[in-house]
Amino acid sequence: MTVALQRGDIEEYCRARGFDLRGWCEDLGSDGKALERPGLAAALAAVRDGGAAVVVAMDYSRVSPNLGVVAAFEDLVQAAGGRLEVVGGSMDELYAGERPTPKRAPE
């Protein structure tokens, strides 16, 4: 699924829930296995600074393909007073190595 399609689904998710989408934090080109990444740090800083209450990801694998990293990031977000939400997918799918089905078919 392209970045543009993921963004579209996230925008739709936020709109449907009345979330004010404040910006994008990305780690394009990263394998996503480390917790120390600029995109995750920026998202966490937004929660800590009061600029965001919710971090929305397309699915848990977009946070990290590593279940431990996802759990650690979610703990940090919650400790900062926020929460992590995902558009699709579940922790069970991440653990099983499965990819969630996108809401829209790729163009």
Give a nutshell description of this structure.
This protein is mainly alpha-helical and about 110 residues long. It is about 45% helix and about 5% strand.
Q: Portion of residues in helices?
A: 40-55%
- The total of helices stands at 5
The stretches of 5 or more residues where confidence is low (pLDDT under 50) are: none
Shape: globular
CATH architecture: 3-Layer(aba) Sandwich
Oligomer: single chain
Q: Which structural class fits the helix and strand makeup?
A: mainly alpha
- What is the domain tally? 1
Helices and strands, in N-to-C order?
HHEHHEH
Which range does the strand content fall in?
5-15%
Question: How would you state the average pLDDT, rounded?
Answer: 86
Would you state the CATH class?
A: Alpha Beta
- The largest sheet has its strands arranged as 1-2
Strand tally: 2
Compute the CA-based radius of gyration.
13 Å
Task: Write down the CATH topology.
Answer: Rossmann fold
Terminal CA distance: 9 Å
Q: Major sheet, described briefly?
A: 2 strands, parallel
CATH superfamily: Resolvase, N-terminal catalytic domain
